[in-house]
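Standup notes
- DV: blocked on the single-chain target, sequence here:
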Amino acid sequence: MKKGLLLIGRGSREQEVQDELRYICAKAKERGGYHFSDYCFLEVIPPYIEDGMEKCSRQNLDALTVIPYFLYPGRKVKAAINKVIEIQSKSGTKITISQPMSFHSSLIKLVDDKIDFTITRNKISHPKKEIDVLLIGHGSKDPEARTSLKYIEDGLRPNYRNVNHCWLEIEEPNIKQGMENCRNNNPNTLIIVPYFLHKGAHVKRDIYEDLNPAMQNSGIKNIFITEHLGTDDKLIDLVIERAKEVEK
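- DV (later): unblocked, structure below
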């Protein structure tokens, strides 16, 4: 059976985002035993969902698994799924749609690994139980999005002194408020985690517009920032797991 895999991301003009998705698709194809694997975008720039589905249709696939490659369930995921269903009605290929990349224990471990790497790289000597963590998420009006970040926060909490979260946009606490909450806990060391899949504009520029002045005004001496989630092997494994869940 010729199986295909299609990842749907939100969309970004940043070349790093496209490079990361291309890498993830290649690894998922190899590890998952797919005949074809590619990505497309919900918005911003092509290839759009129509383009991705049309490209898949030219591969003579027997089955196609579509993965909404989003960290949060919400309006964007629903829009992507609805578009796939609309196109599916005109296709002869068997199409299954997975859950998004949320509410999975491997994401907690992935974030913990990012923090561990930051601890090692910066030669932080005191134990994790003396370290505070701040997660920065994108922000969404959908309550399930908030719940999905709280899932990560709660999963990390047993390992650290304090774990808090804030949002880049749309909802509160915003980044300034998040840093103020951290300051009130009088941390010795604060590690900030940009909880984003890709090195897009939000990670490269947007969060720092608010984060840089908030860090300067916080009075916290030791602040470190981890890498975003990127192309970690745990993400690739999660892509394959999400696909296999619905392919069964």
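- Follow-up: Helices lie at 15-32, 49-57, 75-88, 105-121, 143-156, 175-184, 201-216, 233-247.
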